[in-house]
Design a protein that fits this description.
Length: 289
């Protein structure tokens, strides 16, 4: 009996220790998430080079040493922020391994849904635009990340379209790589315009309109997106955004040459210039003169 009583406190102490350890992990995870969320806002506002670990730590209410307990340095923090954002996008856009490619219309609807989701995450979008611009410098710590990201997303889009062609869904002879690059350019171009004027630019609505027309162009059936596909409820950002966007001056040529309205032609222009650099800028510049 005495032995049993002697063991009981030991078990209780162990249980308390286990609960304390689990509580400590939860606090650590919450603090890590808070640091990542704060870093998103700093990288969005100041970029990587001008952001300061000391300021990020101060805004989190911790010391810089406390921040460094979770991340080895500013580069590690940046890559962790990008990895978390990438995980979110992959879950929305990529099929689980072994499932193959979905129908093209289904994927296009998922792209619109991602744009609608991003419209509710303005900090992430601002950060993305800022860091993509910075990472054109090969020495930037996110340079490889964005190169690999564009290659991965483009590869997935091309594979999806080629699978659609093999199923008889996409028209034979469709230049799947060109269509994939154009879609990425329009997405990035609309993101830039939305960040500059979130009340006037309906990013998911304009993207849905563009993908609807593109789907009608490249599919054998000539059918577009289902009504409201990917938009959900309350997805539009600002009534009249399309009308305001069309007042932006683009110049003559690109919109007519590609069969796009001026808003989407401008989005394509901005996306190509932002994501692909000066060679495309010079090549398309002749269309805008």
């Amino acid at each position: 009996m005495a032995q049993e009583q002697g063991r009981t406190p030991g078990k209780t102490a162990a249980g308390r220790g286990g609960r304390a350890a689990r509580g400590g992990y939860a606090v650590g995870d919450a603090r890590r998430r808070m640091i990542l969320d704060t870093a998103v806002e700093h990288f969005a506002q100041w970029g990587f080079n001008a952001s300061s670990l000391a300021r990020i730590a101060q805004d989190c209410g911790i010391t810089q040493g406390g921040l460094l307990h979770h991340f080895r340095g500013k580069e590690d923090l940046l890559l962790s922020v990008l990895a978390r954002s990438e995980e979110h996008d992959v879950d929305r856009l990529f099929s689980p391994p072994g499932e193959g490619f979905p129908p093209v219309a289904e994927h296009f609807a998922a792209v619109v849904a991602l744009a609608a989701d991003n419209a509710r995450r303005p900090g992430i979008v601002r950060m993305y635009n800022t860091l993509v611009g910075e990472s054109g410098n090969p020495d930037h710590p996110a340079h490889d990340h964005f190169r690999q990201r564009y290659a991965r997303v483009l590869g997935h889009t091309v594979g999806l379209l080629e699978a659609g062609a093999a199923r008889g869904e996409v028209r034979p002879g469709t230049d799947c790589e060109a269509v994939g690059r154009e879609i990425l350019a329009v997405m990035d171009g609309l993101q830039i315009q939305w960040v500059l004027d979130p009340e006037g630019v309906d990013m998911p609505g304009l993207l849905a309109g563009y993908l609807d027309r593109r789907l009608r162009d490249i599919t054998v059936a000539g059918a577009g997106l289902a009504a409201g596909a990917g938009l959900g409820t309350g997805a539009g950002l600002g009534l009249g955004g399309g009308r305001r966007l069309r007042r932006l001056r683009l110049g003559q040529g690109l919109d007519r040459a590609l069969g796009l309205d001026r808003a989407l032609a401008r989005a394509l222009w901005l996306g190509l210039r932002w994501g692909l650099g000066q060679p495309v800028d010079r090549a398309l510049g002749r269309c805008l003169q």
